[in-house]
Amino acid sequence: MKLQEYRSKEILARHGVPLLAGETATTPAEARAAAERIGGAVVVKAQVLVGGRGKAGGVKLAATPAEAEARAGDILGMDIKGITVQTVLVAPAADIAKEFYLGLILDRAARAITVIASAEGGVEIEETAKTNPGAILRLPLHPLLGLQEFETRRIGFFLGIPADLRRDFATVMRGLYAAFVESDADLAEINPLVVTDDGRLLALDAKITLDDSALPRHPDLEAMRDLNEEEPSEIAAREAGISFIKLDGSIGCMVNGAGLAMTTMDLVKLAGGEPANFLDIGGGAKADRVAAAFRIILDDPNVKAILVNIFGGITRGDEVAHGIVEARSQLHREVPMVVRIVGTNSDEAKPILARANLITADSLDDAAAKAVEAAR
Ligand code: GDP
Ligand code: MN
């Protein structure tokens, strides 16, 4: 789950990272009032979960409250990479002398939380990685020892942090690391981290991505979710307790078990089709959950056929078949449905499916081929 800049800054500030927090606004008048409270020059920033807002015109300086109102008017409602801006952050403007990039990622290949730092801040790190990879420091941290003081000094030297700001840099680095670990993040970045004309070190932009699987441990962070920017189908799936990821193909997949779901998607591809989604209905596969899964799959207009692949274990195959037939009768849209049920009571499932005119298959290869054919 990605957090908006102002939310990410809230978390960093809690861990002692120096920044100018500001206030959010959803109308130009609110932006003006915020600028009046702040006093002096402000920066008005689109709050959308995509990078490169600056380049897209979503970050603007304003010298007066009237100007802040006008800039908020420009930015609110603006489209940035397909997302409509509904909120802006109004924050005290900083005079920038130097910009840095400082980030932490969970690097699964290195099996470590890894520091990424570059003195070429402000631009996207992916860009620097292409044009000037030598300008980037990658430093994996020990999984048990965590961030060490000597490492913080090493990062500071690499970035060329001025001597009188090294203590402040240590505060930033420690705060970023603590924020990352304590919120179970898989990414936390400050870009740019700046030195101002009057010699202060400040986080001017922040981005935190949380590990979805750890969210049950953090109800306060879960509450920061921005529903405006999520796939409606993924919201519906989460509410129904279904693991679902929307993809771009035409074959809807309904499967029990994450491994089987991935295998099913692979076989759809092997048969020449493209899956429309990943969907793990979980254990039990009760009729109401099956119905919810069908609705979510069929809400995607690209879906031309559905492949149901269920392995009956504790759940009996005939119960699942009844659930599918019942759920199907309530659907708002009809597409061909290929059903493969194996395991407990799979033989009892067959006549139930056949009576309902569903396409059945014995093997997964066969099911995938039939689904691809049906989608044509
Ligand atoms: P992003 O483009 O989505 O990464 O948004 P940022 O918050 O990083 O803003 C983009 C750029 O706008 C930064 O790299 C800065 O150069 C500039 N910027 C942001 N805030 C301020 C500010 O307070 N003062 C000045 N002078 N520039 C700012
Ligand atoms: Mn940025």
> pLDDT under 50 segments (min length 5)?
none
- Total separate domains: 3
CATH topology of the largest domain: D-amino Acid Aminotransferase, Chain A, domain 1
Span of the ends, CA to CA: 35 Å
How many β-strand stretches? 18
**CATH class wording of the largest domain:** Alpha Beta
Shape: elongated
Q: What's the pLDDT, averaged over the residues?
A: 94
List its salient traits.
376 residues, alpha+beta, D-amino Acid Aminotransferase, Chain A, domain 1, Dna Ligase, domain 1, Rossmann fold, 3 domains, six-stranded antiparallel beta sheet, binds guanosine-5'-diphosphate, binds manganese (II) ion
Describe the structure concisely.
This protein is an alpha+beta fold and 376 residues long.
Overview of the molecule:
The structure is a single chain. The protein is about 35% helix and about 25% strand. The relative contact order is 0.10. α11 (about 315-330) links the parallel β16 and β17 (about 335-345). The model has no long low-confidence stretch (mean pLDDT about 95). The chain is elongated. The two termini are about 35 Å apart. With about 375 residues, it is of the alpha+beta class. The chain has helices at about 5-15, 30-40, 65-75, 125-130, 150-160, 165-180, 220, 230-240, 260-270, 285-300, 315-330, 345-355, 365-375; strands at about 25, 40-45, 60, 80, 85, 90, 95-105, 110-120, 135-140, 185-195, 200-205, 205-210, 245, 250-255, 275-280, 305-310, 335-345, 360. It has 3 domains: about 1-20 and about 95-230, ATP-grasp fold, B domain (D-amino Acid Aminotransferase, Chain A, domain 1, 2-Layer Sandwich), CATH 3.30.470.20; about 20-95, Dna Ligase, domain 1; about 230-375, Succinyl-CoA synthetase domains (Rossmann fold), CATH 3.40.50.261. The longest helix is centred in the middle third of the chain and has 17 residues, at about 165-180. α5 crosses α6 (about 165-180) and α8 (about 230-240) runs antiparallel to α10 (about 285-300). The structure holds guanosine-5'-diphosphate and manganese (II) ion. Manganese (II) ion binds near residues 191 and 205.
